[in-house]
Amino acid sequence: MLKKILAPSALILPAIFLGVSSADSADASEGAPAARGAEICRNVDVGVQVLGSGGPIAEGSRAGTSYAVWIDGRAQLLIDAGPGSFIRFGEAGLKVGDLKGIAMSHLHADHSAGLGGILNSGSFERSDEPLLFVGPAAASVFPGAGEFLSALVGRDSGAWRYLGGYLDGGDERRKFEVKEIAANVAENASIPEIDIAHDLTLTAIPVHHGEVPTLAFMVKAKNRVILFASDQSALSSGFDRVTRNLKPDLLIAHHVIPAGEGQPIGLHRPPDEIGKMAASVGPRQLLLSHHMNRSFSRLEESLSMISARYKGPTLIASDGTCVAL
Ligand SMILES: [Zn+2]
Cα torsion for 137, 142, 148, 152, to the nearest 10°? Predict the structure, then answer.
């Protein structure tokens, strides 16, 4: 009986102690994983930092999906902004003023609900440089990227209309230049490469993610190629065709479901399909992110299924992870 009472206390006490210790620190982000990751990414030519490695269910300390592409010491491209990415953005010392572009793979909330906080943070900075905003065009029950922004910061009817300068250029705010990409293009359609900055381009590749208009992104940064596969099912044949033998420096795949469980091939690739995708794309290294408890608790099984098909190194993302390229 005594054991039953003492055991939870023993677990709770260190957690309380850590909380107090962190709050008392002069800089709460010091030593945070995203700060340590930023230290690595800041000192390499090109790096990809994971700002959110989690999924849609609030079940731990992972933020929702978000990545930053660092070039020459500055995070210049933000891919997705899931809930919680605001915290990692701050821990990593990122500035909206350094961003040249924001690209949203799709508008599921676990990929986009942190954007408002990040834009609000940016409203404390001054810049007259336009900011590219790339996202899918409207389809099914989802708005297009432009309508999504208007619903957030539109001057007339946006929820946060006080940030309307992001769309009309008022208030000395950076103005978004919105590019919507149809996410249902035919497989033989040409896919435009978008110039974001010097030595930084982005190509949006439509993928199948149930009924959700969704884009994968191929980013070229100083001759490095990074392929963000995004949320996609194994029915993404157009993506498979475009990326076959691409041999990027890094492929980021979303490890959402374990083998034989969760949603079938309608929304996400199960581990053996991630392995097939990696074997087809042929990246120098594979990074698994977008973990959920249901998939992460069976990580070893997933890794063995992936390694049966893909023979390169597989890295496991945490919030803050920097992959130097
Ligand atoms: Zn999704």
Answer: 180
Given a contact cutoff of 8 angstroms between Cβ atoms, the answer to whether 299 and 272 are in contact is no
pLDDT tens sequence across 13-51: 332 323 233 333 445 577 899 999 999 999 999 999 999
- DSSP class of residue 27? S
Mean pLDDT over the full length of the chain: 89
From the list 135, 229, 121, 118, the residue with the least C-alpha distance to 182 is: 135
Please count the other Cβ atoms lying within 10 Å of the Cβ belonging to residue 109. 11
Compute the distance from residue 63 Cα to the ligand 1 centre, in Å.
14
Evaluate whether 119 touches 166 at the Cβ level (below 8 Å).
yes
Domains in the chain (CATH in brackets) are: 28-324 (3.60.15.10)
Residue 91 Cα to ligand 1 midpoint, Å, equals 25
Cα 15 to averaged position of ligand 1 atoms, centre (Å): 32
Rg of the chain taking only CA atoms, in angstroms: 20
Contact residues for 190 (Cβ-Cβ < 8 A; gap 6+): none
Alpha carbon of 107 to ligand 1 centroid (Å)? 7
Say how many Å lie between the CA of residue 266 and the centre of ligand 1: 11
Q: 3-class DSSP state for residue 55?
A: coil
Question: pTM for this one?
Answer: 0.90
The helix or strand, by DSSP H or E, that contains position 240, with its residue range, turns out to be helix 237-243
257 vs 302: CA distance, rounded Å? 9
Nearest residue to 238 (alpha-carbon basis) of 265, 268, 215? 215
191-208 pLDDT, tens per residue?
789 999 999 999 999 999
Interval between CA 209 and ligand 1 midpoint (Å): 7
